[in-house]
Amino acid sequence: MRRLAWSFVAVLLSLPLCAAEVAPPSNIVGGLRRVSFLGAALGPETGAVTIAAAVPGSTAEKIGLQAGDVVVSLDGKAVADPAALIGAIAKKHAGDPVTLVIRRGSETLTKEGNVRALPLELQADYDIDYGNIEAGGAKRRIIVTRPKSAGKHPAVLLIGGIGCYSLDGLLRPAELRHPYAKILDALTRAGYVTMRVEKSGMGDSEGPPCSDPRADFELEAAGYAAGLKQLDAMDSVDSKNLFIFAHSIGPLIAARIVPAHPVRGIAVAETIGTSWIEYDLTNVRRQLLLSGMSYDDVERRMRQHEICAHRYYAEKQTPEQILASNKTCAADLEAPAPYTYMQQVGALDLAAAWKKIDAPLLLFYGTADFVTDDYQHRYLRDMVNAFHPGHATYVEIEGMDHGLTLAGTQKASLEGKAPAPFAQRLLDEMLRFFNGLRI
């Protein structure tokens, strides 16, 4: 049986670029080579990758793609679906060569050229800067938003969820669809500087690919630690009013880095407070039941999962070692991050970390989140308040899911049948919390 999803991945695969899109930037921006983009709307047909339209100024237009073209191969490799085409282009950097074989009517044509740089984010009402920090001997992309008004401003570091994805492009579209985009945009309009740190090997970032075992939890945390330090030192930032918003696994990173670099306040959403192994067992059981599995089958499944999880997290065996003796563990080892990352998460002592943090904490849990539960958040609240009385506040948002949208129920979110609106209350409460702490 395939294991159900257990972690939120804030994936930004391909935001649409409108016909009025500005020309791509130079190949090097903020000290890093710019990632490339195809710039084509792809048709809805199954079994073929069809170009519906080419965006002006894009790679697709530059090499001569037209509506109706069917992509056969890229750089000599067959293209099976739109995701494969987008993914292959995304691995290139601006200026790299590309060769596409296409079918146009009865003809087979070869189109060659150099990929163009992904357009930078652009908003008229505030500034967006591209820079970099260093982590693990490699440069990582940072993206900073700044109010246009002069002087120093409070600032927020956004720490996102687990998985391999890029956050570049969130603030480029006219319509801010992603929950992170809505949060970043609103914070900046409210007078805050914000920063995002790209993951290793994602977007413009150098370093090992995010899925590589070298890209472990400590490396990701090092990137955020460097970002927090640089954010604090910026001329436009009031270092007395530095905040963090952390989502999903992000609060674990916050707990790892804040003891060495204190902040004024921390807001967290949809996370955990217990050890990872305890969370994992509860989470898998919850999702199996939500999927409709009978209780007796769930308990049989859980006994197997517990054995596999113990070898993975407690004994720290590699997936290869585990599968060599028990192939039934394959589904239990599925994860959106390398095994090195997951095992480091499994070894975290969250109580010891939060005990060192003397900053007010606002915790959000949405009742439609099937990835975690209210107990994890209440436990974290009680833990922090035991160490630092009155520091932690818990807010429960009815109908919010792990993706920070109003899905209604856990089952509806798990099934993902329809797009859900952003949970505006989370943003309103977070702004009230940050504003109330400013000095």
Descriptors:
439 residues, single chain, six-stranded antiparallel β-sheet, Rossmann fold, 2 domains, 18 strands, Pdz3 Domain, globular, eight-stranded mixed β-sheet, alpha/beta, 13 helices
Return Rg in Å. 23 Å
Q: Into which percent range does the helicity of residues fall?
A: 25-40%
CATH topology of the largest domain: Rossmann fold
Tell me the total number of β-strands.
18
User: How many domains would you count in the coordinates?
Assistant: 2
Low-confidence stretches: 1-20
- As a percent range, the share of strand residues is 15-25%
CATH structural class of the largest domain? Alpha Beta
**Oligomerization:** single chain
The SS-based structural class is: alpha/beta
Major β-sheet annotation? 8 strands, mixed
* Number of H- or I-type helical stretches: 13
How would you concisely characterize the structure shown here?
With 439 residues, this protein is α/β, with parallel strands linked by helices. The chain contains 13 helices and 18 strands. Strand 8 (97-104) and strand 9 form a beta hairpin.
